[in-house]
Design a protein that fits this description.
Length: 460
């Protein structure tokens, strides 16, 4: 797969779009067929300034649920400002990498044959599992200029890790309530050790696609990266705007006594804009901040919470792996109940916000670990493991619509339709509103035309 991606990304950029067709611009179009397939499609957005005889930068976007329109939506404003073609697969989704890489390869072939692309300005972006896929493609192809990684780092396979020779720039984005918050911070530290150019943006929110304004910040940085690499002409007006934005954030953080954030923005000013500001004065401000008692206290708290979060997360993963190997919980999930109780009583109501955020992230991490594992075991028909994760999921989150959705999938896959419908009704009772997602779930195809199934969706 590494060889396939490498060959097609490079070669088709050079000769694959000899006779592109002009399509409607400024409109998000869904369900464009992938060449040579019967059931693969992608969504596209061509900026209003797109010309089919001029090479354009491009972003390949990967949504974890294969929702093309959903993946493209947050990127439209940057497409209009910087002229990017936006492409998002409707078929790649969370799951095994081999089929997703093959889907991506067929997508690349189609897109490079259809649109005129600037071969120096190819980017990948993704959220959650789509973020891991975007990073994997960058590592394997060697032809990606930058990665916008939202809510997850790299795939957990050594073959898919970047090395010191990796040339892409990496912009991580994560919410402060995201279960992968610590992972994204560790990813940044690791990329720094490899001397891979990278930045991390943290926004207020959970595990989701970031808002458009955060995506905008990411691309402001990537555009400047293109200038620093000599593959785009300098735009002094835009650079001054970006500089003013970073300076404004630094000053606002200082005013709010968020000194760790202020120090981070001041370091960005020194690193990226030494010609636009007196760096000596910035260094003096940094030293003053570093000496401040409130800064040292804030830094110590953040480090303490980070260490505790890593420790608790490690313990939960170890316990999960042990019980999974046994196929049951020897103490009937008492350890899990005690752990969840401690998170709720000791940390969720802690006077320090950082502990509250930590508790939220750990509970989401536990839920995702059980839920995603159950999904995998269901696909692989591993009954013992699936039943253990099912029991754990109901201990962790008995009133979660996602937990009951997973159980409905299980029973539908095993042709136990009454049980599947019971759990689907619980899903809807608990507030799940995306009925199209339910209708398009593979395991529900056999009951899709069932009157009871249709009546159930109509009732809510």
């Amino acid at each position: 797969m590494k060889r396939i991606l490498f060959i097609y990304i490079l070669s088709t950029c050079l000769w694959g779009n000899a006779q592109p067709l002009q399509e409607e611009t400024g409109v998000l179009i869904d369900s464009i067929p992938v060449a040579g397939t019967a059931d693969e499609f992608f969504a596209v957005y061509l900026p209003t300034g797109y010309q089919n005889n001029q090479p354009s930068p491009i972003v390949f976007i990967f949504d974890p649920a294969g929702r093309g329109k959903t993946g493209i939506q947050p990127f439209i404003s940057i497409a209009e400002k910087y002229g990017y073609i936006l492409i998002c697969s409707n078929n790649s989704r969370n799951g095994p990498y081999a089929p997703n890489l093959e889907i991506a390869d067929r997508l690349f072939k189609t897109v490079f044959a259809k649109y005129k692309v600037n071969s120096d300005r190819i980017y990948t972006a993704g959220f959650s599992g789509g973020s891991r896929l975007a990073g994997t493609i960058a590592v394997l192809s060697g032809a990606i200029q930058g990665v916008i990684a939202c809510g997850a780092g790299f795939a957990q396979y050594p073959l898919y890790f970047p090395g010191k020779n990796s040339r892409f720039s990496y912009l991580g984005i994560v919410g402060n309530k995201d279960m992968n918050y610590r992972e994204m911070h560790k990813t940044k530290e690791w990329l720094e050790s490899l001397k891979i150019s990278n930045e991390l943006i943290v926004f207020e929110g959970e595990h989701r696609w970031p808002p458009s304004e955060v995506i905008f910040r990411a691309f402001n940085w990537l555009e400047e990266e293109a200038i620093r690499k000599g593959i785009k002409k300098e735009n002094n007006l835009q650079r001054n705007e970006n500089f003013s934005e970073v300076l404004s954030r630094a000053m606002e953080f200082e005013k709010e006594d968020r000194l760790v954030d202020a120090a981070r923005e001041l370091n960005r000013l020194i690193k990226y804009y030494p010609d636009l500001i007196d760096t000596d004065s910035l260094q003096k401000r940094l030293k003053k901040i570093n000496r401040a008692k409130s800064f040292r206290k804030e830094k110590a708290l953040l480090n303490k919470v980070a260490m505790l979060e890593d420790t608790l997360n490690h313990k939960m993963k170890e316990k999960f792996a042990l019980e999974l190997s046994l196929g049951h919980s020897p103490d009937k999930f008492q350890w899990w109940k005690k752990t969840i109780q401690e998170l709720n009583e000791k940390y969720s109501s802690h006077k320090e916000t950082e502990y509250q955020l930590m508790a939220f992230r750990l509970q989401r991490s536990l839920f995702a670990m059980a839920g995603e594992s159950m999904d995998s075991f269901l696909r692989e028909n591993k009954v013992k493991e699936q039943e253990y994760t099912e029991d754990l999921l109901l201990v962790i989150a008995p009133d979660s619509p996602y937990a009951h959705y997973q159980l409905a999938r299980k029973y539908a896959a095993w042709n136990k339709n009454p049980s599947a419908l019971d759990h689907l009704e619980r899903v809807l009772q608990l507030g799940w509103t995306d009925k199209d997602f339910i209708r398009n779930t593979a395991e529900f195809r056999q009951i899709k035309n069932n009157k009871d199934f249709q009546d159930l969706l109509d009732r809510y």
